[in-house]
Amino acid sequence: MIRIFAAMLLFPLLASAQPAFQTPSGNIFCHQAGGILRCDITRRGFAPPPPREPCELEYGHAVTLEPRG
Known about the structure:
Strand content: 25-35%
Number of strands: 4
Shape: flat
Order of helices and strands: HEEEE
Largest sheet: 4 strands, antiparallel
Number of helices: 1
Strand order of the largest sheet: 1-2-3-4
Helix content: 10-25%
């Protein structure tokens, strides 16, 4: 659900072909590299759910969108 919402929200921004951007509040920063978009949330008001599988990186503060969704 979050991925779909983020994709709809960010699609117009991706069309601009800028490699990085942030929301007006500065709370979400996104960077595009190698066909993948990653958005990190600085401050959040929710507790992330437990990961479904072991995760080597930090968890619960980022969304990654790949070409296939």
